[in-house]
Amino acid sequence: MNETQVLAALREQTIELPSWAFGNSGTRFKVFGTPGTPRDPFEKLSDAAQVHRYTGIAPRVSLHIPWDLVDDYGKLAAHAADLGVTIGMINSNLFQDDEYKLGSLTHTDPKVRAKAVAHHAQCIDVMRATGSKELKLWLPDGTNYPGQDDLRDRQDRLAESLQQIYALLDDDHRLVLEYKFFEPAFYSTDVPDWGTSLLHCLALGERAKVVLDTGHHAPGTNIEFIVVQLLRQGRLGAFDFNSRFYADDDLMAGAADPFQLFRIMYEIVRSDALRPDSGVNFMLDQCHNVEDKIPGQIRSVTNVQQATAKALLVDRDALRTAQQAGDVLAANDVFMDAYHTDVRPLLAGLREEMGLDPDPMAAFKASGYLARIAADRIGGQQAGWGA
Ligand code: RM4
Ligand code: MN
């Protein structure tokens, strides 16, 4: 790709933000409050819109139900539109209700399963009211002890519950199913890997796709290989980008391993899946526990953008030639050359062309927004996990 083509591809790229990144979060040890933290979904959207304002590529915000429950979703969508953003995926919540202690969609009790399915009917209503087209499920279900429950029956119950949810969707809705190898359950997880997610999606139908959260794999997993397989099947529905050192750390995307992010984005580019109509939603799923949240999101967005720019710069003709000649070192050189390219000037130029400040982080800092919200948002309950 020449520079004009690279810039054209970057201009089309969008990244979706999670509303929960703007609320307080923490670990099981402590949740730290931050001055100016949003107190409701309206304020979360206002903060998310700041990220779009300075990066120009983050025009959608995912909601999480019930954390983002409001009386009037039309009003929330109108607020988003006023801010220049739209509502993205609607995430359901199957992990914060006492009845779900032993499972939700997989529970042995049909009443609990019915309740979990009904929660998705509520999420689909939110989709209709906000114009969202995607329902996202992450299933916390699993067991802690061998023998605790029947692994095979749980899969059958899950398949049946998912069918019921899928049947509730409108024709232009999609269902995306996320996998995670452990936590909160430690012995078995009912959707632990991409294979399980894919099998359930294949059974459901065309509009069911897999979500790949970069934090949800065992250390050492070759995530870009999974990307390739899901793209080959046309079943990669979305990413939840974040970084990890140990488990599901939810750190800023590209912070721990920018090379991995580059390798993932290379496979996206290689399969022509960056296009807005490719069906892959590039989302962040992160928590900012010790850093400021809006700058944390800006950094994440620009990290994904940098990895994408480098991926676009791979000389694919030279790479193919080296690969076909069996020239291992030359092929690796071509790949690494792109990775080592400093794309910051290219991206600064792109932003200027888009009418943005070339340095989004500095421009946001200079705006004084953080000081303003700290002064304005006094009183009320700060939003966080569970609210
Ligand atoms: C899960 C998963 C989901 C997210 C929840 C809060 O680990 O990553 O995507 O919605 O956390
Ligand atoms: Mn996730």
Number of strands: 10
Mean of pLDDT = 97
| Percent of residues in helices | 40-55%
Q: What can be said about the biggest beta sheet?
A: 8 strands, parallel
Task: Note the run of SSEs as H and E.
Answer: HEHEHEHEEHEEHEHEHEHHHHHH
First-last Cα distance: 46 Å
Helix tally?
14
- Bound chemical compounds: beta-L-rhamnopyranose, manganese (II) ion
| Envelope shape | globular
Uncertain parts: none
> Which class of secondary structure composition applies to the elements?
alpha/beta
Strands across the major sheet, in which order? 1-2-3-4-6-8-9-10
Strand content: 5-15%
Q: From the alpha-carbon coordinates, what is the Rg to the nearest angstrom? A: 21 Å
Please tell me about this protein's structure.
The N and C termini lie far apart (46 Å). With 387 residues, the protein is α/β, with parallel strands linked by helices. The chain has helices spanning 3-12, 41-55, 73-83, 110-130, 151-168, 194-204, 223-232, 258-270, 293-313, 316-324, 328-340, 344-353, 360-367, 369-376; strands at residues 16-18, 60-64, 86-91, 134-138, 142-143, 174-178, 188-189, 208-213, 236-241, 281-284. Helix content is 46%, strand content 11%. Beta-L-rhamnopyranose (RM4) is lined by residues 91, 138, 178, 180, 213, 240, 248, 285.
The gist of it:
With 387 residues, the protein is an alpha/beta fold. The chain contains 14 helices and ten strands.
Topology:
Layout lengths: L2 H10 L3 E3 L22 H15 L4 E5 L8 H11 L2 E6 L18 H21 L3 E5 L3 E2 L7 H18 L5 E5 L9 E2 L4 H11 L3 E6 L9 H10 L3 E6 L16 H13 L10 E4 L8 H21 L2 H9 L3 H13 L3 H10 L6 H8 L1 H8 L11
Parallel strand pairs: 1-2, 2-3, 3-4, 4-6, 6-8, 8-9, 9-10
Antiparallel strand pairs: 5-7
The structure holds beta-L-rhamnopyranose and manganese (II) ion (MN).
